[in-house]
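In response to the reviewer comment on reproducibility (Comment 2.3), we provide here a single inverse folding case reported in full, input and output, so that an independent group could reproduce the run without further information from us. The structure tokens appear first.
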């Protein structure tokens, strides 16, 4: 659930930064906001990829 929230935040920041660039508002701030969104997005995608490629953990043998 937490990664889904981060994914939504990343999409909002990325699209907001892109919109700022298209409208030419606030100068370089659009690049900054879009960069933060893209950075969070790449971290979330990497986390999902790691989980998908790592497979199931070995069974825990209690002791």
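Designed residues, in position order:
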């Amino acid at each position: 659930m937490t990664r889904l929230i981060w994914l939504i935040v990343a999409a909002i920041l990325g699209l907001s930064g892109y919109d700022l660039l298209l409208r030419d508002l606030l100068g370089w701030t659009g690049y900054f906001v879009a960069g933060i969104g893209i950075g969070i997005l790449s971290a979330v995608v990497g986390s999902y990829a790691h989980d998908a490629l790592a497979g199931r953990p070995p069974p825990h043998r209690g002791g």
